[in-house]
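Exercise 7. Given the components listed, write out the predicted structure of the assembled complex. Treat all entries as one system.
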Amino acid sequence: GDSVTQTEGQVTVSESKSLIINCTYSATSIGYPNLFWYVRYPGEGLQLLLKVITAGQKGSSRGFEATYNKEATSFHLQKASVQESDSAVYYCALSDMSNYNVLYFGSGTKLTVEP
Amino acid sequence: NAGVIQTPRHKVTGKGQEATLWCEPISGHSAVFWYRQTIVQGLEFLTYFRNQAPIDDSGMPKERFSAQMPNQSHSTLKIQSTQPQDSAVYLCASSLADTLYFGAGTRLSVL
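Answer.
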């Protein structure tokens, strides 16, 4: 079945430093899946951060970027300079052609930004 | 817009009891999803409805779990004869297109 892998369970970064959170995926259906990053800020519900539905394209939101790399089957999340307010749990997710409505999530990466 | 509303926020049941979780989707959204989140399994898809009709329940445990959507304003997830392994946060989400809007979740604790 479809799966999403996030290798880091927790990441700690100092404020103003750069960030990369790794995400790789495997989709069983023919064609390319839609890829998403969702985020849960402390005390809030899970919400969409960005999405990319076309291979090779880049999505961006709130200073974060992720590029859909179909050769490497990756969708890493990056930010050039993090802030304390970015501390949250980040989830990579995909939906595939067999059912674009259903999202399959990675295990999540908890980001802590230290002042 | 209050977002997706889930009640109760916390529920504690004894082993063998029944638990019913409620979800009120965002008005106008045509699809409602249920997910379960645990530390071990992460976020697991359970089931979803579109225009109140059940579409995909491939993630639902075959026994004891059932979901309904009797009208467009709410959905329920019922767990019969709850077991300790059912302890989790149950998330409801609604959508109009491909973006899911999640509720805050119901934390179910089975003692």
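Discussion: Chain B touches chain A at residues 3-4, 31, 33, 35, 42-43, 45, 48, 50, 55-56, 91, 93, 95, 98-105 (CB under 8 Å). The longest strand of chain B covers residues 42-50.
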